[in-house]
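Morning!

This is the sequence you dropped in the shared folder:
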Amino acid sequence: MKINYQNSTLHLEDMPLDVGYASEKVTLKNPSGETFALGGQNGFTQLILSVPFIDEPLIAQLQELNTLLSLNALTGVSKTLIVANDSHTDPQIEGWQFGIDTDEAFGDYYGVRLAKGELGGEFAKALFIVSKDGALFYNDIPNDLNTLFSLEKALSKIAAANNCYTGKGCH
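The structure's back. Tokens below.
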């Protein structure tokens, strides 16, 4: 997959995890060094964002997403912002976990690690929604790192993922 950044074309090391596949539980670290699990079936809808850098437009979009989730009464959604390494600073946005992929499991399994070159080793900008049953329900990987996520589409997919699993086997 080709991704543009300023005047460069970047590539992913692997193919991103596709919709419908089971997400794998991975372990991340927060800035304090404590570990936490992400992905897999945990009974919650999971909103996962990976980014190569944290800038003001991203922070504004995460805050807007918080507002939209609240206005639409979408509860029971865990929200995690993930980076590839500890060179990034936690933006400390209310309601968001900040995870560092110290063992590289997230980048490898979800297929968002950028190949060698500019920003090599960092993550592509990606939004994943994992349903309560652990399946990847939706993904959005913009082909330009400066492109914002489509919050309208993400919000509708979060609502659908939040309501689709009944916990009683096949739907």
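Headline: The CA atoms of residues 12 and 111 lie 7 Å apart.

More detail when I'm at my desk.
O.
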